[in-house]
Design brief:
single chain; Rossmann fold; 3 helices; globular; alpha/beta
Amino acid sequence: MLTSLTHQTVLITGASSGIGASCARFFAQAGARLILAARRQEKLEFLVTDLQQHCSVETLTLALDVQQPDAVAKALENLPVDWQAIDVLINNAGLSRG
């Protein structure tokens, strides 16, 4: 049994391209509200524009690097109150070591 994603809040890390952007498109079409996180704000803004051309979707963008835990914690603490209850996490951001 599938749960409806309508009005569910979905946080996607690594959302600016590839699998993350594809996930954003899927969840937007399913009616979810999206928190899109990636390092490059301009790519996130491009994705939001693309999503809004194809469906009505509420979005919030976070420009952050998941390799900086303090920045991630601060970004989550500063989410608007009505965005703080995250229903689905797609932890897609890659970590580079080396």
